[in-house]
Amino acid sequence: MKVRFIQVFVMLSSFFTLALLSGAQAGEQRDSIPESAYSHGYPYPVALGVHMGTTGVGVHLYQPLGPKFGLRVGASYMPFNTQIAGTYNNYATRSDVKAKSGNVSLTFGWTPFAQGSGFFRSFNIQAGGAYFYKLDGELTTRLRDPYKFGEINVHPDHVGTITTDVEWKKTVNPYAGIGWSNIVIDSRFSMHIDLGCYYLSKPSVSMQATGLLEENVSNAATIERNMKNYRYLPRVEFGFSYRFW
């Protein structure tokens, strides 16, 4: 599933890249990048784009609120699947990890150097929030090798599995960060880079177990207590935008 979303992003990015190349080939019809592309810290007057980052792939809309201020509305989604090998109480284990993250966000930005020039012209300070309609994970753990019970080897499937579910409340989470919102590529295309962090609600933990591992579900409260401070979700993101005028 994760691969599918990466493929979608690559496809969208390829579309924007092809459009960018087409625009470059038509350069003789557009003498140069217009001054309006540099007049605001955010793409002016409005821009639509795609992005990819630690919170997933998605789309966004930029709207300037004057030369030095602007807002961005976006939506992101990311499924995540992997396997982790480890050791617990000297027993080799294998864990299947599944996680999903989906949000819609609204951020406001201030570009203090928008009227200048150079690399920091589109630098901005951001504040806002996102509603995470999906933010949870599931960890299913089983033994990799047979369990020795006296002279008997018990197959891992008969020992059982432990499934741990972690879920964050569906709510609006505040965000703060910095970024470069209008790195001009040509007369209509620009690029952005964002670095920031969401402050999440406290996670809740539940456990289910089968076979010989059923007694381990009592550890759910301990795991939840140990995870109560896992409330910071970094956001590192880049994307491309198409400016309309």
UniProtKB/TrEMBL annotation:
Protein name per its UniProtKB record: Outer membrane protein beta-barrel domain-containing protein
Superkingdom: Bacteria
Record's signal peptide: 1-26
UniProtKB keywords: Signal
Gene3D superfamilies in UniProt: 2.40.160.170
